[in-house]
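Limitations
The structure tokens in this dataset are predictions for the assembled complex, not deposited experimental models. Users should treat interface geometry with appropriate caution, especially where small molecules or nucleic acid strands are included. An illustrative entry is reproduced here so readers can see what is and is not provided.
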Amino acid sequence: MQKVALVGAGLIGQAWAIVFARAGYRVALYDAEAVVLDGAKAAIAARLEDLESFGLVSDPDAIAARVRTTDNLEEALDGAAHVQENAPERVEVKREVFGELDRLAGPDAVLASSTSGIPASAFTEGLAGRQRCLVAHPINPPYLVPLVELCPAPWTDPAIVERTFDLMRAAGQSPIRLRKEIRGFVVNPMQGALIGAALKLVEGGYASAEDVDIAIRDGIGLRWSFMGPFETIDLNAPGGIADYLRRYGPLYAAIEREQEGPAAWDDGGLIARVEAERRQFLAQDRLKTRSEWRDRRLMALAAHKAKVKKEIGE
Amino acid sequence: MQKVALVGAGLIGQAWAIVFARAGYRVALYDAEAVVLDGAKAAIAARLEDLESFGLVSDPDAIAARVRTTDNLEEALDGAAHVQENAPERVEVKREVFGELDRLAGPDAVLASSTSGIPASAFTEGLAGRQRCLVAHPINPPYLVPLVELCPAPWTDPAIVERTFDLMRAAGQSPIRLRKEIRGFVVNPMQGALIGAALKLVEGGYASAEDVDIAIRDGIGLRWSFMGPFETIDLNAPGGIADYLRRYGPLYAAIEREQEGPAAWDDGGLIARVEAERRQFLAQDRLKTRSEWRDRRLMALAAHKAKVKKEIGE
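Predicted assembly:
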């Protein structure tokens, strides 16, 4: 099997290690700090046990054995077909790391960044191998949430995007191809629009933050876990999506006009209100426990989706 | 058990019949057309069989036996504690039906409308019993998607909202209380914001409609099927939601500025493009088959959520 090099062994690097090793790839997990690597090994082993308990992997030891940690970057990159960078989210760090990767990695290696917000053009422009660089943005944690947003710089070779697409598919992920750079890629503009609308509902005094959450998780969010927004509305009018937009477009346009204007992203008073309401339901010191609950729910949902995909179809 | 009267035996009336009969209520299902009632009985029986096959009900015959159909409105309303109206979505129809309901229903009956878009104030103002009227808007189909949006008119008695809230809870639904009228209630402003952002991504040439769908169903939509958008971000920063909004609010604000302006709800060219792309994945004549697939997936998801709620907690 091909070798994948992961540069940076924090949470995202660890998660990628599980993704690629689970799919049979040989994984080199690099970090400059030996202590980070020790922690990473233990965390990966613990996480693989969790995944096994949900039936999501069958041989955790064999998977863990495919992950080799190293604090030697050249060793990590040696022979790697794909390099996935997981450094801190600062453009000057990305620029430095990508300079080094382009210098040290084999000429055929793809160089991908996990950045959630910095376009590849901002840290690859001056590189000799800039045509082999792109963003491959995962949703945390990628071994449970398969989406990967592939976003090329203007100079990224389309064949590199295709190779990365195929690799991610082969690794069991669900890659999508952006056609050009955009701030926040695809998920964040949609998530931002939804959160912005949610904030306006609370700001306007129409509903509590908790009721807004219930409206999604016990309402429209159910469909969105197995169909996107376009397929959802395609099936919600007898004639399909164009029929739907003819029927309900005017309603959405009217809502949009009434709720016009930017969301109150920096309204301290509103943020304090939403924060206070959340803390009634979940005390600050229970955030960690609740995050563990979320991860178990995501594992159960991943197992459910794999099962119904076989039984009912996708 | 209490009696619930359902006025209108189309798809929504049938679905409400399953909700209330499943919870043990006696249900009177009224329609002026006897042929509609015959169709409704058969459809309810068929749907209960589907639900049984997913473990979502255990005694379909007993449930069906609790639903009595009638084309006599007075008989349907006699002794009903709750009346749920499911007439066509036209304000003059709602006004006429509510006039009749207020005249004929017992003085203690709550009068609720299933309307998805007309505020209760638009069709209850002149009624002697207007304080007992409100909207109780389901998401289709309510026996699989538990959310019910309760939206009072300015004159609705708060105690009536509370009674309806308790009834919906007792029926196994997940009601939320709007504090005042707003176009589209809570779900549609959020769904509209998301679809609007999705349309802008396609319009701007950043991604295909299919990739936008994948971004939700294999990405952020997974979390939204068991957590709302606020809880999602509350768990996505170490310090909770206020910490998250401090970190990522500027990103969302920048995206919002870049994507400013109304979505192209009536751009025929864009709608035709999205429609054409959807039809590549799903031919027009397969919309019905795909809707049946969606219903089976919703049933499987409802069964999954009930199971993990017990095993992992909510």
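Some entries come with short summary sentences. For this one: Residues 154 and 180 of chain A are 7 Å apart (CA to CA).
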